[in-house]
Amino acid sequence: MAKNFLDQLKEMTVVVADTGDINSIEKFRPRDSTTNPSLIAAAAAMPAYAKLVDDALVWARKETKGGGTEDVIKRAIDRLAVAFGLEILKIVPGRVSTEVDARLSYDTQGTIEKARSLIAMYEAAGTKRERILIKIASTWEGIRAAEVLEKEGIHCNLTLLFGLHQAIACAEAKVTLISPFVGRILDWHKKATGRESYPSHEDPGVISVTTIFNYYKKHGHQTEVMGASFRNMGEITELAGCDLLTIAPNLLAELEKSTGDLPRKLDAKAAQAMDIPKIVVDEATFRKMHEADRMAFDKLDEGIKGFSKSLEALEKQLADRLAAL
Fold it and tell me: Taking the model in full, what pTM does it have?
């Protein structure tokens, strides 16, 4: 019997579930899992997770010793993110990614402190920091925070990554993993050009991740590349062989239903033989390249605003629940 695409993909790429829904993770059994404020908010609204939400609020109220609603909610959100992470870690054998408040994206010290706080909560629950990836936006400030955290053994997943300059800066900071956003890159190019679609091999998001992967392997960077934010199955199959791919449950299901031969598209050994010039990215170079890359500039800004908005929606959701309690 022919293997399905998901099984074949798992033979050459680490498959990660992009969801906060425990049931989906149990179904597809990925090695790792990622969450973000949007996914946590969606999961927190499900009746199945009402107890996790209530427990987080009760804990936060005790921790703040009867503080105001705003303080309770802020503590509860961190507690809830960790609570979902702990539930996920009962299922996946690898790591879970937990996101720092996107509103701290341009605050290096604030990001460092928030990351340390999240790790302390995981460790207090008996989970080793090696199983946690702290998600941080790929701003210059976020990358500097990650550089400090990595030296403390707090591993980081640099998210909202759209440009080669961001990827190189992350690798030079020795971050554990980056998440280039394939589908959001495609979205920008479709809007900018007026095109309705691209063949998968010409998809701008696929090309971006391929370029980053080849650059890393050519120059011996240890930072892992995890393609993220997919719009269709073709984007995933074109990146077979990437270090990791984080995939939403609906696309995992599509891969599981598809059969045929799934060839490797990204190859570390082949990349080592390529002629790819090395670029050193200091702050001035980063800012210059970021300004020149209109797509990366637009999508990073939009992504930070979007995650911040999701966080505000989650805060309101929890405030309503706290009032009901």
Answer: 0.94
